């Protein structure tokens, strides 16, 4: 939904107090909902983790680091007559950019979180007769754990879900919309383009038994704008030659396959899921699965970042702090509020304040 | 027992400290026959602790009191002997005025102001009990058997309720050093069922300034351009004096450590909780053992006295030890203590008992203000006194009560914090307690609050015309800042880009310059049209520059505040049990169940609902609707 331009609820609308009487926290309540919605094992594990309050735990060090910056800044404003250490607010700018990177990285894990819940969308593209449909069918048959038909999609739209490493993967064969008449062909190309635009990853199929055509090159160029894997098909033919694809940029992932014999299919599956698998994103495999959390983290990251740039511009502390409090509030909407009392308590335990 | 009353008033204010003076002055000026009853008429407006008014957030409060028509700002402007604007190098939202006072002059001036207030009657006496009729206050009883009648009573007893002074192992009952405590009145409050707690505060020794080696200390002069507290003060004209800064040393700390058992704070003799931000020297030494020195301020008590206040050295150690410790401070080795420091414990009443109008829920017509509500500080007391006095008068006149919102004032923040959160230590105001700090500047309190003061009748025609003309000047400056623009070809452009050391684009407005950290108001002043420059002062311009500096932040903050308010019309099902709303505290559930609001907007207006609780409720309403 977020990707269609929708925006999640505004801050404040959801501010939740930490529950002291033992009931579920908001984070936990949302995790329960995710648990019910979970489609695959990986998603279930992820949901179970947030139920344990892991997100709150993960955010705690970030909140602590934020407080460590806020406390000296606030002290220097509020206790100007006190004998505070001179180096009270050193390297604030670096600390802030480190922190915003952390928050943003956490927010970015939402991409995988969304994949766990909603599945990875793969568009299968390629010019006619390169063996797209054969690759498509082979991918389906090689996977014995087809999870479900996506509601509203049927075989004639040629979309199927397979399960790769616990992630539901929706594969759409764009060949299904391709007809011979010129005009309709144009329509087909438009649809192909749209499928490409919607996809998380493009699987481009190229006939490895022939030299690259202009159309192949165009398709590869378009596919390589995002995540893409190139299947060099027909590896079982004698005329197959890997050099046929030498004009394809080296940094693109190229897998020789044979839809006929199934050779290379396993490697292909591995390459498809690789950019989205847990260890590729974050060694800890912790991910944000809730759009509201993603939005809050992103806003927190933005707020920290803009405070950092205020520091570099030499702005007065109260302006820098305005952004930091905002970030604290966004994080607080996931983990529970930080009250002025908490901050004052930290100030008084850190510095000797008062006449 | 006498059946009738000796005198009849509309409002009686008990206690003539900083809360009581404001309360009495406000009630009288709103038109109520008001009696101000105090144990000693000679101690009206006495500063029990340090002889100073203002500071960060506290100075903001004084400005708010002044904007509403209170008197603290006017009195300190006439009796302040060292004015300083704190945080001058930072943004205007965190700047605040502070002034040392001539303690005796402050008292004299305060009494003078009160004596010249119509409808206000000073009475000396010790109040021992309330007269209650049908759950409402009807009057008070005095120790000398007098009975005074009133429909509303403001109790501003400070530290006098069951006050107990500690110096070393010796204790004695007192409201303040040298003045009797209020024992009977404290017992009367307990009888009425008020939940009473115990707090503690302390004060440092006062020194004989003739025996101080002043050269051993760093001098801290007053500002060259003193910024007054009151919007009505044109300029501070009395001579200004300096404070002096010095430090304790490790020898002092060692001696304190060796004698901790002598301190009632550490011997278990003191039960009350003291303020963390006014720690005694014993506390500082124990809690921060790594610090090799603690800062001290030598503050003059007035023009005509050699008494010096040793700020930063609050202590309840025995007198001999205090004297010994003072002698160990370089420059004070010959210095005599003329009044020892002491700690005082006193009763306070849980402020969650109060309505937003500072009226008790237990007894109608009874209002509490100041330290009795668990606060510390003259300014905190005064703003409560002002609001309590206003509300006592409005109550007597049968009018609707007056409150201030958190978003518009520190006074609103303070009262809301008190009545919703209660206190577990003496409560002091801080700018960080306000969600909208950038919008609560000391120099905008007139724009925020003076219209209320005028409506209440606390600002007279002359005062109001001063407010109006400043408002008009600010509007003109604002227009000029937004409209004055210099192109690359202009002579001014060259100078501006030289001063700011940056490329200013094809053209630059004065408003855009206001937002650059390196630009200050005195620079902007020179670029204003000549016709404007002759009509305004630098303070006016500073306010306008501040408005522009924070404009974007405040707009964003207002939008957030608006958003919640816009949900006001959402209906709350009549069948809803609030305890089923996950995340609401017991206290919030109780408040909601008592009122049973029908819309979210009504829930918002229930006194004491926290922003967090309202969001929780809103979230529940939204999700349960689907």
Profile the largest sheet of chain B.
Answer: 6 strands, antiparallel
Rg value of chain B = 26 Å
The 3D shape of chain B can be described as globular
Work out the helicity level of chain A: 40-55%
Gap between N and C termini of chain B? 67 Å
Span between termini of chain A: 55 Å
Q: Could you list the spans of chain B in which at least 5 consecutive residues all have pLDDT below 50?
A: none
Mean pLDDT of chain B: 93
Based on DSSP secondary structure assignment, what is the total number of beta strands of chain A?
Answer: 6
Radius of gyration of chain A: 26 Å
Characterize the overall form of chain A: elongated
Oligomer: heterodimer
* SS elements, strand count of chain B: 24
Count of DSSP-assigned helices of chain B = 21
**SS-based structural class of chain A?**
alpha/beta
- Report the order of strands and helices of chain A: HHHHHEHEEHEHEEHHHHH
Chains forming the largest contact: A-B, 41 and 55 residues
Strand content of chain A: 5-15%
Overview of this structure, please?
The complex is a heterodimer of chains A (355) and B (626). Chain A is α/β, with parallel strands linked by helices. Chain A has helices at residues 26-37, 41-51, 54-78, 92-108, 110-118, 132-142, 182-198, 214-223, 265-273, 278-281, 291-313, 317-335, 340-350, and strands spanning 120-125, 159-164, 167-173, 201-207, 227-233, 253-256. In chain A, α8 links the parallel β4 (201-207) and β5. The longest helix of chain A has 25 residues, at 54-78. Chain A is elongated. Chain B contains 21 helices and 24 strands. In chain B, the strands form six sheets. Chain B has a six-stranded antiparallel sheet, with helices on one face. A five-stranded parallel sheet of chain B has the order 7-3-2-11-22, covered by helices on one side. Helices cover 37% and strands 18% of the residues of chain B. At the A-B interface, α3, α12 and α13 of A face α18 and α21 of B.
């Amino acid at each position: 939904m977020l990707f269609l331009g929708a925006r999640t609820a505004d801050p404040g609308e959801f501010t939740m107090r930490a529950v002291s009487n033992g009931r579920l926290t908001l984070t936990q309540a949302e995790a329960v909902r995710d648990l019910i919605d979970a489609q695959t094992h990986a998603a279930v594990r992820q949901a179970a983790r947030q139920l344990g309050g892991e997100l709150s735990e993960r955010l705690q060090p970030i909140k602590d680091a934020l407080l460590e910056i806020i406390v000296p800044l606030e002290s220097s404003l509020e206790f100007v007559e006190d004998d505070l250490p001179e180096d009270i607010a050193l390297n604030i700018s670096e600390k802030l950019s480190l922190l915003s990177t952390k928050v943003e990285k956490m927010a970015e894990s939402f991409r995988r979180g969304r994949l766990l819940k909603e599945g990875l969308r793969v568009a299968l593209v390629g010019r006619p007769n390169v063996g797209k449909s054969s690759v498509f069918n082979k991918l389906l048959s090689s996977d014995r754990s087809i999870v479900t038909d996506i509601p509203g999609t049927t075989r004639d739209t040629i979309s199927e879900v397979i399960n790769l490493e616990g992630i539901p993967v929706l594969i759409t064969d764009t060949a299904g919309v391709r007809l011979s008449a010129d005009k309709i062909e144009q329509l087909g190309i438009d649809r192909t383009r749209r499928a490409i635009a919607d996809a998380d990853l493009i699987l481009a199929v190229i006939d490895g038994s022939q030299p690259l055509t202009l159309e192949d090159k165009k398709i590869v160029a378009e596919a390589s704008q995002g995540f893409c894997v190139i299947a060099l098909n027909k590896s079982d033919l004698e005329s197959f030659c890997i050099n046929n694809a030498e004009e394809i940029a080296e940094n693109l992932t190229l897998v020789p396959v044979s839809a006929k014999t199934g050779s290379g299919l396993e490697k292909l599956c591995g390459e498809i899921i690789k950019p989205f698998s847990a260890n590729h994103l974050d060694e800890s495999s912790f991910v944000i699965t809730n759009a509201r959390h993603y939005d809050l983290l992103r806003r927190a990251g933005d707020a920290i970042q803009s405070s950092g740039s205020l520091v570099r511009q030499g702005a007065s502390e109260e302006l820098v702090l305005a952004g930091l409090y905002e970030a604290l509030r966004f994080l607080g909407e996931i983990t529970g509020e930080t009250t002025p009392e908490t901050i004052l308590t930290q100030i008084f335990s850190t510095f000797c304040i008062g006449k | 027992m006498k059946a009738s009353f000796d005198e009849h008033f509309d409002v009686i204010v008990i206690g003539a400290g900083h809360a009581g003076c404001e309360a009495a002055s406000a009630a009288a000026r709103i038109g109520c026959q008001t009696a101000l009853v105090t144990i000693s008429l000679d101690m009206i407006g006495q500063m029990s602790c340090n002889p100073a008014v203002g500071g960060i957030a506290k100075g903001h409060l004084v400005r708010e009191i002044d904007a509403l028509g209170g008197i603290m700002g006017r009195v300190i402007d006439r009796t302040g002997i060292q004015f300083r604007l704190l945080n001058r190098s930072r943004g205007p939202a965190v700047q605040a005025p502070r002034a040392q006072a001539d303690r005796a002059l402050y008292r004299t001036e305060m009494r003078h102001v009160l004596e010249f207030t119509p409808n206000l009657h000073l009475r000396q006496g010790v109040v021992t009990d309330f007269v209650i009729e049908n759950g409402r206050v009807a009057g008070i009883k005095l120790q000398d058997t007098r009975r005074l009648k009133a429909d509303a009573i403001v109790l501003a007893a400070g530290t006098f309720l069951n006050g107990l002074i500690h110096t070393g192992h010796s204790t004695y009952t007192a409201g303040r050093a040298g003045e009797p405590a209020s024992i009977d009145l404290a017992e009367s409050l307990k009888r009425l069922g008020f939940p009473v707690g115990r707090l503690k505060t302390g004060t440092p020794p006062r020194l004989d300034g003739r025996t101080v080696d002043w050269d051993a200390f760093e001098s801290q002069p007053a500002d060259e351009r003193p910024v007054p507290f009151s919007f009505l003060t044109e300029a501070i004209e009395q001579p200004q004096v300096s404070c002096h800064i010095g430090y304790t040393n490790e020898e002092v700390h060692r001696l304190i450590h060796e004698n901790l058992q002598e301190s009632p704070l550490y011997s278990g003799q003191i039960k009350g909780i003291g303020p963390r931000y006014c720690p005694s020297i014993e506390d500082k030494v124990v809690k921060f053992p790594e610090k090799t020195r603690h800062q001290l301020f030598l503050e003059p008590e007035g023009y005509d006295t050699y008494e010096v206040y040793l700020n930063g050295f609050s202590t309840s150690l025995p007198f001999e030890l205090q004297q010994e410790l003072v002698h160990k401070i370089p420059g004070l080795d010959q210095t005599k203590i003329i009044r020892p420091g002491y700690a005082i414990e006193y009763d306070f009443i849980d402020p969650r008992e109060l309505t937003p109008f500072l009226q008790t829920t237990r007894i109608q017509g009874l209002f509490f203000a100041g330290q009795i509500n668990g606060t510390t500080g003259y300014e905190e007391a005064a703003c409560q006194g002002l609001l309590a006095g206003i509300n006592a008068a409005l109550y007597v006149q049968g009018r609707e009560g007056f409150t201030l919102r958190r978003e518009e004032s520190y006074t609103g923040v303070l009262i809301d914090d008190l009545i919703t959160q209660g206190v577990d230590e003496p409560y002091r105001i801080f700018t960080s307690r306000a969600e909208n700090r950038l919008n609560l500047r000391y120099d905008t309190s007139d724009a925020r609050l003076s219209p209320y003061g005028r409506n209440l009748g606390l600002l007279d025609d002359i005062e109001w015309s001063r407010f109006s003309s400043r408002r008009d000047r600010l509007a003109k400056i604002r227009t000029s800042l937004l409209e004055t623009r210099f192109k690359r070809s202009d002579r001014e452009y060259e100078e501006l880009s030289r001063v700011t050391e940056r490329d200013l684009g094809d053209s630059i407005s004065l408003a855009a310059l206001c937002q650059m950290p390196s630009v200050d108001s005195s620079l902007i002043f020179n670029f204003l049209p000549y016709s404007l420059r002759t009509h305004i002062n630098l303070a006016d311009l500073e306010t306008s520059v501040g408005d522009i500096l924070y404009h974007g932040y405040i707009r964003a903050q207002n939008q957030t505040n608006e958003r919640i308010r816009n949900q006001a019309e959402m209906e709350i099902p009549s069948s809803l049990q609030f305890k089923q709303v996950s995340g609401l505290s017991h206290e919030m559930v109780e408040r909601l169940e008592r009122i049973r609001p029908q819309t979210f907007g009504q829930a918002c207006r229930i006194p004491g609902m926290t922003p967090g609780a309202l969001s929780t409720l809103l979230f529940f309403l939204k999700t349960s609707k689907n």
